[in-house]
Amino acid sequence: MSDLPFTLDQLRILKAIAQEGSFKRAADSLYVSQPAVSLQVQNLERQLDVPLFDRGGRRAQLTEAGHLLLSYGEKILSLCQETCRAIEDLQNLQGGTLIVGASQTTGTYLLPRMIGMFRQKYPDVAVQLHVHSTRRTAWSVANGQVDLAIIGGEIPSELAESLEIVPYAEDELALILPTFHPFAKLDTIQKEDLYKLQFIALDSQSTIRKVIDQVLARCDIDTRRFKFEMELNSIEAIKNAVQSGLGAAFVSTSAIAKELQMGVLHCTPIEGVVVKRTLWLIVNPNRYRSKAAEAFSQEILPQFATPGWDGDALKLSQKNLMLSTLEIDTSTSISSDPE
After folding, report:
1. How does DSSP classify residue 193?
2. Reduced to 3 states, what is the DSSP secondary structure of residue 203?
3. Are 220 and 270 in contact (CB under 8 A)?
4. Residue 335 has what DSSP assignment?
5. Backbone angles phi, psi at 126, to 5 degrees
6. Is residue 175 packed enough to be buried (19+ CB in 10 Å), middle (13-18) or exposed (0-12)?
7. Strands (E), 52-163
8. Where is average pLDDT lowest: 86-90, 109-113, 284-288, 293-297?
9. Average pLDDT over residues 153-172
10. What gap in Å lies between CA 40 and CA 71, rounded to an integer?
11. pLDDT tens-digit map of 227-252
12. Cβ contacts of residue 135 below 8 Å, gap of 6+?
């Protein structure tokens, strides 16, 4: 180990600088002084005999050698974390960490309920929930930064062979209206009635908006004919706007359970149309799966899945998991999400 030209601390510092964009912010995030960070980088560059940062601009920019070291450094740090978690597993769920990923809607409305049930049963396990875009979440699973994730968007095609992608549940999208809207008095409305409404939606470039448009298109509903009153940046803002009478919206039924119970929003059925999308469960079969992740998969996931969901596809033996971990080809890399 003494012959290696870098230490794990130096790799952590390099990663922090790349993430934060400056030596000072990296030092703050690591709770060390800026001179200590600068000294470690200088030592690392001297040991490697190559510059890692272009110091000409205001933001710390990695050189080509810096990007290369960061790419391998992230894999090294990820494997170190995986090793620690495997050792923690020897305590048989008396500790350890479970890291779950989710896209925006599932992370806001579904996963907290699931994690709450898990924590009641295993209070000594630390649970982290990472909520990001579907793309970024999928890359986190592929890179071993997240144990498993539930997402509702489209998974990057380049990850299709790296991940185990299992249909998990059906998420119904409901049309919500203000309780005092004339359509709220009807038992059902027709598809053509949708084009008479004023809609509130997420930004047209958001992943959730694109998914909703695709799902509605499969039901022969043309969102290009919708009259959009405004675009907002969160589901909560959309619900509040609809409640205030500013328009109608399509949202996941999981996001409006509380409002429907309180009677502050109205869910209006569309005759002959049920708008659903598939939620996907994704894992990396070539990564070590902790006992915490196994317990979550076997005891919590089935309770929220669509009836008939078969979780057997995810039940790999611990022996096979350990073998697949040991047989990882370190010459094959998975790049990080560019977002």
Report:
1. G
2. coil
3. no
4. P
5. -80, 130
6. buried
7. 53-54, 61-62, 97-102, 126-131, 148-151
8. 86-90
9. 90
10. 18
11. 999 999 899 999 999 999 999 999 99
12. 153, 155, 156, 207, 337, 339
Most confidently modeled of 56-65, 104-113, 302-311?
Answer: 104-113
Q: Report the first-to-last Cα separation within the chain, whole angstroms.
A: 34
Geometric angle at alpha carbon 148, from 145 and 154, rounded to 5°: 95
Residue 312: per-residue pLDDT: 61
Check residue 301 and give its pLDDT. 95
Q: What whole-number distance in Å separates Cα of residue 275 and Cα of residue 250?
A: 9
The mean per-residue pLDDT over the stretch 193-202 comes to 95
Q: Which two tokens stand for residue 158?
A: 């380049």
Kindly tell me if the per-residue pLDDT of 282 is higher than 50: yes
272: left (phi over 0), alpha (psi -120 to 50) or beta: left
Q: Residues 240-265, buried b or exposed e (16+ Cβ, 10 A)?
A: bbbbeebbbbbbbbbbbeebeeeeeb
Alpha carbons 206 and 233: distance in angstroms, whole number:
9
Q: In this structure, what token pair is assigned to residue 7?
A: 């230490």
Sequence-separated (6 or more) residues with CB below 8 Å from residue 90:
none
The amino acid that residue 326 corresponds to is L
Residues 6 or more apart whose CB falls under 8 angstroms from that of 20 comprise: 26, 28, 29
| Range with lowest mean pLDDT among 184-198, 238-252, 299-313 | 299-313
d(CA 19, CA 25): 9
Q: Please count the other Cβ atoms lying within 10 Å of the Cβ belonging to residue 303.
A: 9
Burial class from Cβ neighbours inside 10 Å (0-12, 13-18, 19+) for residue 315 reads exposed
Give me the count of residues in the chain.
Answer: 339
**What are the residues whose beta carbons fall under 8 Å from the beta carbon of 142, sequence distance 6 or more?**
159, 162, 163, 284, 334
* pLDDT of 39 above 90: yes
Cβ–Cβ < 8 Å for 135, 277:
no
H/E run at residue 217 = helix 207-218
